[in-house]
Amino acid sequence: MICQFMVSEEDADTRIDKYLAGCMDQLSRSYLQKLLKSGQVLANGKPIKSSYRVSEGEMISCHVPEAVEPEILAEPIPLDILYEDEDVILVNKPKGMVVHPAAGHLTGTLVNGLMYHCRDHLSGINGVLRPGIVHRIDMDTTGVLIACKNDMAHQDVAAQLKEHSVTRRYQAIIHGVVKEEELTINAPIGRHPTDRKKMSVNEKNGKQAITHVKVLERFHGFTHIECRLETGRTHQIRVHLASLGHPLAGDQVYGPEKCPFPELKGQTLHAIILGFRHPRTGNYMEFTAPLPEYFERLREKLRKK
Q1: What is the rounded CA–CA span in Å between residue 295 and residue 92?
Q2: Which of 11, 17, 138, 140 is the catalytic position?
């Protein structure tokens, strides 16, 4: 794909990488630098370097290669299957497993395991990188997750997620002692204004996000809670709790720099319950993934304190 831009008076004397970033904000600055180094960017038909400054009236051409999706391999990865039929499969995802392939994680994902287990019976709506995946949880979040085996089931479950009728309950251990027995966090979440790898409570550019919180047990300096999601934004529970000064124990992104429990590998967050209307029968079904060992060990340690 070739993109062409005529430099305006107001953009004159702008570095080419900054100029392109403004013209093509869907591409990262690092990717644009690669295009410049490989000679894919021209000014009036001549290759230019990343230090080049554009001039008014110049024609800037940028060749963006078509994205080639890598072949995803089926792998015999053991899956903790909670339920399976001809339309859906529910899995208890372990800590450290990525849900679908992405840069740096093309193997060992839940999708690789599902492809081996389900063979050709996975929905194709989300493309070759995410067959069967209708929603996801973070790599270090554990618990129940649904995948769909055909497009009918995928469309139906996706519609339920969109209308917020799917029951999604999580348990977490957070820093600090929550005084209220129950509370609701209603704060929009969007991309962090300065750190593009993080999300944040963002009143200006965020999307509505609602998390209902219930205290299960209090410890010295920590609280065991249950969260019910009304919406499903990226990192929603982690961002919402951190915004109140109660980040999740072990959260390496939104928590304190120094974790008091170095044995934790990522946030203490577990998707314990998932409930939905079965896409074929219409019957409501609910599944529970028991608390994992890492979660139980931390809870016992806090009780002894």
Answers
A1: 14
A2: 138
Which CATH homologous superfamily contains domain 2-63?
RNA-binding S4 domain (3.10.290.10)
- Class assignment of domain 70-163? alpha beta
Nearest to 217 by CA among 111, 295, 145: 295
pLDDT tens sequence across 153-199: 999 999 999 999 999 999 999 999 999 999 999 999 998 888 878 99
| Fold entry, domain 164-305 | Pseudouridine synthase (3.30.2350)
Work out the number of other CB atoms within 10 angstroms of the CB of residue 9.
Answer: 7
Q: CA 140 → CA 162, 169, 202, 264, 278, distances in Å?
A: 24, 16, 24, 10, 28
239-253 pLDDT tens trace: 999 999 999 999 999
- Is 138 part of the annotated catalytic residue set? yes
Query: What are the phi and psi torsion angles at 93 (to 5°)?
Result: -80, 130
pLDDT, one tens digit per residue, over 106-162 is 899 999 999 999 998 999 988 888 899 999 999 999 999 999 999 999 999 999 999
Give domain limits for the chain.
2-63, 70-163, 164-305
Same fold, 70-163 and 164-305: yes
